[in-house]
Amino acid sequence: MTEQTNTKIPAPLYAAAGAGDLAYQQLRKLPAVLTQLSDKAAASLKVYNEQANTRAAELREKANTTDFVALRENAASVATSIAQLAQDRAIAVYTELVARGERVVGTGVIEAADVVNADIETTEEPKAVEATVTEAKAVEAAPKAPRKRAKPAAPRKPAAE
Q: How far is the C-alpha of 93 from the C-alpha of 86, rounded, in Å?
């Protein structure tokens, strides 16, 4: 530990001055560090540009040799296959839902409804036919009234004035 001198300046002020001097010394080195980093960045950039140009040339060559018509046809075939698969899955799901619904409702209820509907149809049909036949017989059986001839109208007297 260093001995402090008996001066009128407080120790924290000396600490701040020491930190300022240290910062000043580091800042004096900054231009050299910036030049060094700039050179390094330029060299790296040159390497990256060369790599990018090489990769771009490879991609151009690949694009020139690619059969896009075959790619398009292949994509269409794959899309059709996927659509068919989706349709098959949808049908399977629908069939499962129908089966589940039948279990929930119960096939006995459906069979009973079919029987009731058949009974309704058979009982309504004869009644409708019977009513039509009855009406037709009533019309035929009704006595026909003789036609009355219209009498000529009597001449009118002129109105009194």
A: 10
